[in-house]
Design a protein that fits this description.
about 250 residues, alpha/beta, about 15% strand, 9 strands, 10 helices, two-stranded antiparallel ribbon
């Protein structure tokens, strides 16, 4: 069983350009995402999927220096970018990760992959019902399903957001991993300066003592210092997806 993690990353984020190279504990956000995802026991290889835009040459250079495989593809058709990477490896499953999640937890990723394989699902995530903090999102897709999606998805929202067509397809077998405690209102992702300030605080509190800190350590910290949640607690979850759906069109 060959499992390929694809981390989508680009410099041109509309609300926080260059966020993948924001500094956290002396290293860029992208380094932390790659490192945390690579700790998964189920993932065989990690590859970064960026775009052909000139600004993203910096991501390609960084990955080359770190010995991480990197692919450059379409900026807006992220589904095509994923498929073109995946078909080079021909994996059994593709794990979708976004580069704006420097608090990822390999144990959470492994729970999603394990459920996907044990149930022989077409698609498995921890986001069909959002009980994990925004920033621990993990989606696992059979490569054959990703290929079919690439062939059939027509709406802009389905091309920009890789799994939207799959989520809306009632004929596929889907599974969801639920958190033991519903933490779906918490925001651990990096999309704004407020998010960056919040994540910086988490790293300042935890990284020096334990660079391998995980979600359980963050939960304990936030329960001890609930005021940290207020830093970015007013931001709407999945705002980018909602915007794409409102402005949807056939491509």
């Amino acid at each position: 069983m060959y499992n390929l993690a694809i981390i989508q990353a680009r410099m041109g984020a509309s609300r926080l350009p260059g966020k993948v190279f924001k500094n956290l504990a002396g290293k860029p956000v992208l380094w932390h995402v790659i490192h945390r995802v690579s700790k998964s026991k189920w993932i065989n290889e990690v590859v970064v999927a960026t775009t052909i835009q000139k600004a993203d040459l910096e991501i390609i250079k960084f990955c080359a220096e770190q010995g991480i495989r990197v692919f450059a593809g379409s900026e807006e058709d992220v589904l095509d970018r994923y498929y073109q990477v995946a078909k080079l490896f021909n994996p059994d499953n593709v794990i979708r990760i976004t580069a704006d999640c420097p608090l990822h937890d390999a144990d959470v990723i492994d729970c999603v992959i394990a459920k996907h394989i044990s149930e022989n699902n077409d698609y498995t995530s921890n986001t069909i019902k959002e009980t994990f903090p925004d920033g621990l999102d993990c989606e696992v897709i059979k490569f054959s399903v990703l290929e079919k999606t690439w062939q059939e998805a027509k709406l802009f929202s389905e091309r920009e957001h890789v799994t939207q067509y799959i989520i809306n397809n009632n004929f596929l077998k889907k599974g969801c991993v639920f958190n033991s405690v519903d933490r779906g209102v918490e925001r651990w992702t990096l999309d704004t300066e407020k998010d960056y300030k919040f994540i910086q605080k988490i790293y300042d509190e935890l990284y020096m003592e334990n660079p391998e800190f995980n979600s359980s350590h963050i939960y304990a910290l936030l329960d001890k210092k609930p005021e940290l949640r207020k830093i970015n607690g007013d931001i709407v979850r999945n705002e980018g997806l909602l915007k794409s759906i409102v402005n949807d069109h056939v491509v």
